[in-house]
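For the sake of transparency, this paper describes our internal protein records without simplification. Because each token names a local backbone shape, the row as a whole describes the fold. One such record is reproduced below, unchanged from the form in which we store it:
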Amino acid sequence: MIPFVGLFPNKTSFTMPTLLLNASFIMDIRRKVEGASVDSLGFDVIDEWGRMVPDPDRWPSSRDGKGFTKVAQIVHSMGLKFGIHVMRGISTQAFNANTPILDVTTGKAYQESGRKWLAKDIGIKERACAWMRNGFMSVDTKSGAGRAFLRSLYHQYADWGVDFVKHDCVFGEDFDPDEISYVSKVLTELNRPILYSLSPGSSVTPAMARQVSRMVNMYRITGDDWDTWGDVAAHFNVTRDFSAANMIGAKGLRGKSWPDLDMLPLGWLTDPGSNEGPHRRCNLNLDEQRSQVTLWAMAKSPLMFGGDMRQLDKATFDLISNPTLLEINSFSSNNKELPYFSSKNRAMRNRSRHSASEPLTLGLTSCTGYEASGWSARATGDDLEQVCWKTNSSNRHGEPFCLYKRQSSLLMDDDLTYKQRFDGKVHLLKSTKTEACLGASPNEKLTSKESKRGSFSPCGRDANQMWELNYNGTLMNSYSGLCASMRTQKAISGPNGVRAWIATGRKGEIYVAFFNLDNEKAEVSMRIADLGKALPRKKIDSASCKCREEWTGKEFGVIKGSVSTQLEIHGSALFVLNCKSA
């Protein structure tokens, strides 16, 4: 659990005071002693009901069961909002201690069917968080006791005065729609509004997001974002897809929901996984930083600053408090990628038209999507059947992609609950000569540019290695509830080119942003008349527009034909146009 403070953006029906969420992580409440790490076991502080609470040695105001109440009061007195970062389900520490479960309706231990229920009755150890196996596991949301535990958690957060909850290891490749839906239900019953955020975002698709977007306020759509250009560039395609699917500002919990591109890694930072330093300045140059915040604003992603607020330099402050970006981020509409422009650079002129196909690679997607269907069973001469992807997507030797399926030998043990939970599920092996089973989700958090899915490891009890072949041709993973899909990826044979986005302002402005993803400078131009193709209701065909570029401050005056500019390597341009019909 990690507390943080800030100002919420005015993007839901909540009454929020300002545009920008300055998210400043304070510190982890795990005991800060030798041997403690993100995935270490035994260093958490839990109360008698198995709920995570602050370490009183680090947070003296939390003694006597006060939790973060005093901290939240101080934060609120400064006109700020207070949030925490929590994980899925129940901690392994509480599971091992087999703590009782609080029934908030009685203030006593939860009882059902004549007995008191404990942590081991609700924890699903086979569904431990894939990248924090020693930390947290799912709870059984189908049981009254499992729901009572989750209810007690969020009632506790409300009692502390929490305004924002980031719920981690429940989305993307760790998808847990049952827990998300129940937590959302509990939040609607509380006496205070709490903004609800989901994470992580690896492998998220619009189809997956649609399953939960009405239940939440924001949800990650990429892996962790760090200060490399590769991470920034990895956001363009997924952001385009979510915009095209009309997911920006769709209906959400008590208001709207927003695709989240992750925090802005600007200013004073550490390296990934290093909480104690060494500290350093952001590795992105100013052009790259401007491109990042411009895309985040045009896509209306929640703006969350990921650097050290105590070391905030003027250049970074000017960037994250830019009035035009904040106006776009909070009040613009019709936000989408713009195809109507022309660009040229040396890299594009030299780009090869040929790209080589790579082998089929495993991806995860929503089981309701058309791309999930295509698996079938195939008999072999061996004792084991195969599960094969549709034969019209074969490898370079013309053979379909197949895995061997085998019932888990662990289903033969005496654990009745395990047998019932995974009845009909199978392990998938690469060959009959190995004891390595396919796992769907990675055992570490991924950055935006990384892809490490479909790994094989020794067969075990993990739900991550259990699969079910359904009658409709989908192959569903028991950990995330997502389905496997084989995709043919094309090798990138050249730079990523120039991208453009368009949006309209609340006072009639038109915002157009250009981004150079290449390693060469680029020239870009657009015809004013072409803006009407993207905004047909604007009737811009014969309009004249007063034009200004944000980053250079250049005033172009009134233009009627077209506007052109040069983009630096990884740089951007942001035009603000006020148009009048002729």
User: Anything to note?
Assistant: The chain is about 20% helix and 30% strand. The two ends are 58 Å apart (CA to CA). The longest strand covers residues 572-581. Residues 326 and 496 are 27 Å apart (CA to CA).
